[in-house]
Amino acid sequence: VPVYMETARREKGFTTWQCTHLGGHRFAANFLCLPHGIYYGRVRESNVATLISEYQNQRIHLENYRGRSCYSNEIQAAEYFLRMQTGIKEISAFRLKETKNKDSDNSMIEFLSPTNGKTHLVHIQTDKKATI
Predict the structure, then answer these.
(1) CB-based contacts of 67: which residues, under 8 Å, 6+ apart?
(2) pLDDT tens, 81-109?
(3) For 11, how many CA atoms within 13 A lie in the half-sphere containing its CB?
(4) Where do runs of H (alpha helix) occur along the chain?
(5) For 70, how many CA atoms within 13 A lie in the half-sphere containing its CB?
(6) DSSP state of 92
(7) Count of beta carbons in the 10 Å neighbourhood of residue 31
(8) What is the per-residue pLDDT across 26-50, written as a single tens digit (0 to 9) for each?
């Protein structure tokens, strides 16, 4: 409720909705920015101003970033690590080009940078034995 109240207070051009659960964080607030489907987790009241400002400037705040709702878990992880490695935060900086599953545990995910045509290849290895 505190994150919702802070968001509603700062809204200015945003429509703010509150729902019971988006998934992923049982006791921490989530934040979803539509229409891009940008998903943030473990959001606190103190993050709200930054998240709104970054979104208004068409940028992603990497500290709380969990991915885009249109992508699978593997693609979300690949995009996050690509952004962390490059430091590129602009929402439109990368587009999913192709996903190749080498086997059940390994995927190669290719992103395209529309501004310069450069491609970025990210290898994701899934550890199905890991527990949370």
Answers:
(1) 39, 73, 75, 76, 77, 79, 80
(2) 999 999 999 999 999 999 998 888 899 99
(3) 9
(4) 2-10, 45-56, 73-86
(5) 9
(6) G
(7) 22
(8) 677 888 999 999 999 999 999 999 9
